[in-house]
Amino acid sequence: MTRVRTLRGQATAGQNTILADDGDLTHGWIIEQFWAWSFDGTRFNCSLSTLDTAGGMQPQVNTQIGWASSETWDGPKEGVLDPLHLIVRDLYLQAVPTGDSLVNYMLVMRRIPVSDVEAVTAIIKETAQNANTFEPFP
User: Fold this and answer.
1) pLDDT in tens, 41-82
2) In the 3-class helix/strand/coil scheme, how is the chain assigned residue by residue?
3) What is the Cα–Cα distance from 8 to 122, expressed in whole angstroms?
4) Domain map of the chain by residue range?
């Protein structure tokens, strides 16, 4: 059974935990949509990551799975997402707003059941090891 969940809130500058590990490796989350926008119209950039590490917007880093930015205020920005990434533990949002501004965000996630092999593969990928793709098993 799949379940859709939305997460929304405001992020301060730096790392913000938005999904915490519940210890249950029999399910995972796929981020289907990601929006971000500045609280006061200033520019920002942010990234979604599976590790609590700083580093800006770096798509070559295997732990980063989503990115959004804006130079001006013209509404929420839909982020770019890695569509094959499965979250089985923590998820962090790294926000880099101008000054002390806040970054608003909203994610749409789908909960899916996973096998032991899929969970282990996702954990390896979450910790930036050399598992570069997640392919669901039939």
Assistant:
1) 788 888 898 887 766 787 777 788 899 988 776 778 889 998
2) CCEEEEEEEEECCEEEEEECCCCCCCEEEEEEEEEEEECCCCCEEEEEECCCCCCCCCCCCCCEEEEEEECCCCCCEECEECCCCCECCCEEEEEEECCCCCEEEEEEEEEEECCHHHHHHHHHHHCCCCCCCCCCCC
3) 24
4) 3-126
Contact 72, 43 (CB under 8 A): yes
Half-sphere exposure of 103 (CA within 13 A, CB side): 30
CATH architecture of 3-126: Sandwich (2.60)
Q: Rounded to two decimals, what is the model's pTM?
A: 0.80
